[in-house]
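Please, structure for the following, as C-alpha cells.
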Amino acid sequence: MTRADISDKLVHFTSPGDDWEEAYRRLKSILSSQRIIAGNEKVKGRHLCVCFTEAPLLSLHGGLLNPTNYSRYSPFGVIFDKKWVFEKGGRPVIYQSEAEYYDLPESLRWRHVRYEPANSPAIDFSWEREWRIPCTELQFRSNEAAIIVPTSDWADRLIGEHEREQDYRVQMYSLVLDEFIAEQYRDHFPWRITVLGD
C-alpha cells in the first residue's frame, strides 16, 4: 500500500554540529566505518539507542528539517528499510506521560518518549515520528542503506571525493604493480544517494 503519510523507510540524521560542513564530515565518518554509534543524550534512563525518523522524505523540509523550528537535525543521513530496522530490534517509540515511564517493564523503557500535550508549555515530540534500536552501535553494509544529502552539489562532492581517493589508491598500487593490476584495486562508489532537493 502506497500512502503519502507513511514511509517504508527510516532515516538516521546526523546532528547539525556548528554547520553543514561538520554534519557532512559526520556522515562521511559513518559511511567510512559503516556503523552508527548509539547515544543516550535525550533518552530517559540513559539507555543507549540509535534513533531514526519514519517521516516521509517529502515532508522533511516542512517538518523535521525546518530550520526555523526544528534545527536538531542536519539534512545529511542514512536511510534504511523499515523491515531491516525492525529485524535488528528497532521499534517505534512510545509517546506517554512521564509517570507512565515506570509502568513500562525495564526491558521496554528505552522506547519511552515524554508526551504531555496538556502541559503549559506542551511537551510534544511526536512530530519526530521516532524509532529506536537499543544497542551500542549499528553496523550495516552499503547494500543495506542509502545516503541522504540536501542538494546535488553535496552528492557530487561525496562522489568526487571518493573518486579522488580511489585515484590515489590506484596510483600507490601502480608504484609496485602493473597499472592494469593496480586498477583492479579501485572501489567504485557503493552508495545509493537520495537528494532532498535543490
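The helical segments are 20-33, 82-87, 152-174, 179-183. The CA atoms of residues 142 and 190 lie 6 Å apart.
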